[in-house]
Amino acid sequence: MTLPQLALSSLAIGLVIGVGMSLLVVWAYRARARAEEETSTSIPQGITDVLGSMDDAACVVDASGLVLATSRAAARFGIEVGSTLENPELRQLVRGVRASGDTAMESLRITRGGLSLDPRLVSARASAIGARLVLLIVRDVTEQERLDQMRRDFVANTSHELKTPVGAVSLLAEAIESAADDPAQVRVFASRISAEANRLGQLTGRIMSLSRLQAEDGLTEVGPVSIDEVIASSIEAHVVQADSAGVELARGGDRGVWVRGDAQILIEAVGNLIANAIVYSPRGSRVGVGVRADDDVVEIAVSDQGIGIAEADRERIFERFYRADEARSRRTGGTGLGLSIVKHATQRHGGEVRLWSRPGRGSTFTIRLPQIAAPANADRDKKNKKRARKAARSAGSRVRNGETA
């Protein structure tokens, strides 16, 4: 072999050895990086900042189930740094994601880290962020589920409640047609149709009232409201009902108290409490409406001496269409929406409703509202309204006596 050929051979061998060594070094570095990645428990850059800005419960979990980092909301489920995931379903979800390397999501019912026995419905999402680390996000959807269920129940209950009077009107119309030759029966059926129509109108009206209260713009006419006027209007609207039931209406407590809100909605809310108190009171008893101003709070209490409310019914008494006494409500034409309207009307005015009741002794519903100072022209407006009501009563009396108004 000549010298040039020997030199070229040496160069080729050296080049092969150099490339091989380079490849070996690259492979070694990559193997080392993979090994470090597989054994590393360090959190990737930026993950901690993301967790700190999250409203949902979230955490980073390593291969042993140890929690390395959390969001602030994670404590609601008992998830803390340095602890392990206690919930077996969450642990199973994390293990499955670590094995597959994919993202998985499940809906689970879990308790909040022993802080509550009430199970919460959560949407859990797990994603692999490395060979050993998994990001777990737990979103509490219990309230959303409750609202969805309320909507479904509202539609179902409304449909059921509307079917009763509509079906009755249809049947009575057929009865009138078949009894066309009997004027007495026609009058009876016509009277019953009128009663069912009134019931249907009352039901639809209350559904509309409740819908307005639950809308974002539920209060459209907000201003200073005299509680004296609210109580007076509510009592006047139910005097005939009380007389027919043999129940006395009594008003007491503080006067000259004002709140801010919608007068008509407050009148309807207090009127619903008075109407319920009359319905559930025995003949010869009394329904009291009292007002008490305490610091910055106004309390409107409606008390009766009726049958009271059982302990089991008190938690549900403000639900839509719920009736503690189904038979009595049907007989008196109750819609089961009155107390729900009271609750939402009070909440719309920044207040709350409280209930005291004892079976056989009666019930007291108390509306608590924020108090405001009386407007500057309150006395003049009060006198004008009194004169207007007096003139209206006088005109009504002349009409009843056969005089021309």
Q: Which descriptors apply to this entry?
A:
405 residues, seven-stranded mixed sheet, five-stranded antiparallel sheet, Heat Shock Protein 90, Beta-Lactamase, 3 domains, 12 helices, disordered C terminus, alpha+beta, Helix Hairpins, 50% helix
Notes on the structure:
With 405 residues, this protein is α+β, with helices and mostly antiparallel strands. It folds into three domains: 47-140, 2-Layer Sandwich (Beta-Lactamase), CATH 3.30.450.20; 147-218, Helix Hairpins, CATH 1.10.287; 223-374, Heat Shock Protein 90 (2-Layer Sandwich), CATH 3.30.565. It has helices spanning 3-39, 47-52, 88-100, 142-178, 183-214, 227-236, 239-245, 263-279, 311-314, 326-332, 338-348, 378-400; strands spanning 57-61, 67-70, 103-110, 120-128, 134-140, 223-226, 248-253, 258-261, 286-294, 297-303, 352-358, 362-372. The strands form two sheets. Strands 6, 7, 8, 9, 10, 11 and 12 form a seven-stranded mixed sheet that branches. Strand 11 (352-358) and strand 12 form a beta hairpin. The protein is elongated. Residues 157-373 form the Histidine kinase domain. It is found in: Cell membrane. GO terms for molecular function: kinase activity.
Provide mean pLDDT, rounded: 77
Order of helices and strands: HHEEHEEEHHEHHEEHEEHHHEEH
Radius of gyration: 36 Å
Beta-strand proportion: 15-25%
The rounded distance between the terminal residues' Cα atoms is 140 Å
Shape: elongated
- Summed up, the domain count is 3
Instruction: Outline the biggest β-sheet.
Output: 7 strands, mixed
What is the CATH first-level class name of the largest domain? Alpha Beta
CATH fold-level topology of the largest domain = Heat Shock Protein 90
Specify the structural class. Answer: alpha+beta
Please mark out the parts with pLDDT under 50 across 5 or more consecutive residues, or reply none.
113-117, 326-333, 391-405
What is the second-level CATH architecture of the largest domain? 2-Layer Sandwich
Report the total helices: 12
Q: How many beta strands in the DSSP annotation?
A: 12
Q: What level of helicity do the residues show?
A: 40-55%
Considering the protein shown, what is the CATH homologous superfamily of the largest domain? Answer: Histidine kinase-like ATPase, C-terminal domain
